[in-house]
Design brief:
Blueprint: H1 12-48, H2 55-69, E1 98-102, E2 144-146, E3 153-155, H3 170-181, H4 187-196, H5 203-229, E4 233-245, E5 250-261, E6 273-279, H6 285-290, E7 297-299, H7 307-312, E8 316-318, H8 321-335, H9 338-357, H10 362-390, H11 396-411, H12 425-441, E9 443-444, H13 447-465, H14 470-480, H15 494-506, E10 512-516
Parallel strand pairs: 1-10, 4-7, 4-9, 7-8
Antiparallel strand pairs: 2-3, 4-5, 5-6
Length: about 525
Amino acid sequence: MLSAAETLSDDPAILKDMVVAQSAEIHNQNILIEKLKAQLSGMQRHRFGQSSEKLDQLEMTLENAEIAALPIEPAKEQPALEEKQKPVRKALPEHLERIDDILPVPEESCKECGGHLRPLSESITEELDYIPARFVVRRIIRPKRSCRACETIHQAPMPTRPIERGRPTAGLLAHVLVSKYCDHLPLYRQSQIYAREGIDLSRSTLAGWVAQSAQLLEPLAESIGKHVMAGDAIFADDTTTQVQAPGQGKTRTGRIWAYVRDERGYNGNAAPAAYYKYSPDRKGAHPQEHLKGFSGFMHVDGYTGYNAAVEDNNITEVACLAHIRRKFFDVHQANGSTLALEALEHIAKLYQIEKQIKGQPPDIRRQVRQEQAEPLLQKFEDWLHQTHKAISGKTPLAAAIRYALSRLPKLKTYLDDGRLEIDNNAAERAMRPIALGRKNYMFMGSDGGGKAAAILYTLIETAKMNGINPQDWLTDVLTRIPDHSINKVDELMPWNYVSHKIQSSSSISEGILTKNYA
């Protein structure tokens, strides 16, 4: 660009060419600025933002805001009783143990007349207390008896334990696994917590327990995988995980793949489940191996690594509207584009229909979609074509439109089958625990650690999807699986644990401890 007026030519033709060149340069710079703004906005939102993809940060922000909003005021004169508004509180759960603190009437006789006091009634106020978890030592005592005739010694055999010649019970192993893979608490932090209780459990000891538990539970995880792959439609996604590279002083990037079967959207009969697999890289050969034998619909993003698996296994790919929406959301967040907002409004109408038919049978979902959603989707597609012609092809908005147009043909499949969903959010929800864990323990120790993590995520997330407490279920499974037939491993599935839990809990009478402060 010229910096001094004296360098300008007096020739009108040359001046005109200079203006055209400068206009083109300004146009290109504006496009570059818009691209950089879109990239920066997307990076900031994915790292720090409070969007639906970053629910953990949103929850922490809301929590801090709620605490800050609590009024701190000096004590005021209590209003009259009739002016008080009693807070509406939920009753405390009935299954919790009740510990009674009895406060007797301090007087032995009536203060008014000196008469004898007789029992009348009582007032009960319930408070919620917390007793910290504690370690206990279980002793296996096996008496020996000898025969008086031949002096043969008889003794009960040792029961099978999850880790032979090891000290942890099934309950402790389940606690360590759930703390790491459900509550995202690294093993070194668990070791520090246990040390406060005077228990010396090093990180290496806990790591050994995790590895042995994963090996023991692997058949159950593989059985869950077969259940997932037996579905008519699944959801698939993958994410990164850092893996320690021995001898290099750094980490390398591995992958965790998730395959989800979830029929709750159309009230299907199959139990929901999530199946995780680990791989040291993102080559397409991995999903090709994972999906071997699966035939049906698969909700995925636009990753080309699934193409070979789709072709080999007669899989019908279903695109994700949430990925399309995210592109336009990033553009709107970056520069406030009204056209991007208009695209989001088109998409919102399609999601509103899905909200109305959630949980309905497949035939009803299909009918509503074809009557209401199909015209809206076609209108959105026409709008995309028209808008793309009217804007510069180098802008972030144009890139979002091209992505949408490339994915819409595979998205339309959902209109014709009520068993399908409009997006791949089921798989993305399955990826959230991986992302949360990644923030806490940052990297896997090895490829073996990645495989163990995939096994344990499979078990814990499947239990959560079925409304089962993973601590209770894993305790039960780790107790039973050493002696359980491999051919009957399906009996240990979390969805089969519900009836077992109800049956066992009904036989346990509720104990009440009483403390008298007389």
